[in-house]
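// run 5 | inverse folding | seed 20
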């Protein structure tokens, strides 16, 4: 992966963006330390996100939370019939 200093990146941003668009990731370096990476966008598939998170967890970059426990959040009964909010708003606006 190519490394580029921040000043060089600022001066030749279009050049480096073309490289990333072509599929070549770039690491951005500040005083010898990698501070960021420019990567081409992912294909946006939903399954891809979970795989990437799992990989980041394996590398120790993130910590995955526990699954939600639905029993902690019971479904409350309706206090008013469906459509009540719309009816009240229509009345308030004079659209009855």
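// decoded
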């Amino acid at each position: 992966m190519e490394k580029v200093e921040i000043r060089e990146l600022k001066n030749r941003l279009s050049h480096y963006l073309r490289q990333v668009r072509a599929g070549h990731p770039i690491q951005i370096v500040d005083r010898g330390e990698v501070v960021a990476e420019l990567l081409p966008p992912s294909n946006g598939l939903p399954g891809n996100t979970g795989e990437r998170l799992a990989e980041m967890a394996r590398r120790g970059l993130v910590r995955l939370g526990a699954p939600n426990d639905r029993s902690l959040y019971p479904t409350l009964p309706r206090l008013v019939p469906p459509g009540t909010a719309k009816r009240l708003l229509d009345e308030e606006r004079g659209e009855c």
